[in-house]
Write a structure and sequence with these properties.
The protein contains seven helices and no strands. By secondary structure, it is mainly α. It has one domain. The protein is globular.
């Protein structure tokens, strides 16, 4: 990746994902993926700051781009690791660096419209589709396995959140009963 703002590559990854993923996985570089996500993060953070979605002041315009520029690459490294492990458990053949880099090609540009309320929901749904295509291509898995790779961590998180919520409700109920008996 030589361009600081690779508009054509981002456009291709979002609009022609299958062809772009197949071609770009050969150029896999974690550092290039980090650069993609930092640039996308700065732009998305600026948008959030300018729209006043956080604080609505100059501080938001300064802080949000920095936060996004740090959190997007770090979150990407962690998320890639989780999906990479699940893909490997299901027979995936791709490398971590190929998965991270190809993910960055669509995650960076989609973070920009994704920062806009309500639009972000549509972006997330399209990103799930792109994740399935990316996992299929990078790991040479069939569609069902790629869907499982993408959804398994989300389902596990939902179950854990449900259990945590249930535990909190149970604790509050026990506390309420203990207070009523005193």
């Amino acid at each position: 990746m030589s361009d600081l703002l690779p508009i054509e590559l981002w456009k291709s990854a979002v609009l022609n994902p299958k062809e772009t993923f197949a071609k770009e996985k050969k150029n896999a570089s974690i550092m290039d993926g980090v650069k993609q996500l930092v640039v996308g993060g700065v732009i998305a953070g600026l948008l959030v700051g300018v729209l006043g979605l956080v604080g609505g002041n100059v501080l938001g315009v300064v802080v949000m781009p920095i936060m996004y520029a740090i959190l997007m690459p770090v979150g990407g490294l962690i998320g890639t690791g989780i999906l990479w492990i699940v893909a490997k458990l299901l027979g995936g053949k791709g490398s971590y660096s190929a998965q991270y880099y190809v993910t960055a090609l669509f995650a960076a540009p989609l973070a920009i419209p994704g920062a806009i309320p309500l639009v972000g929901l549509l972006v997330v749904l399209y990103e799930l589709y792109l994740y399935v295509l990316m996992i299929k291509d990078v790991h040479e898995l069939d569609t069902l396995k790629a869907v499982i790779v993408v959804l398994a961590p989300l389902i596990i998180l939902a179950i854990l959140a449900f259990l945590a919520f249930g535990a909190i409700i149970a604790l509050l109920g026990m506390r309420s009963l203990a207070g009523a008996g005193a």
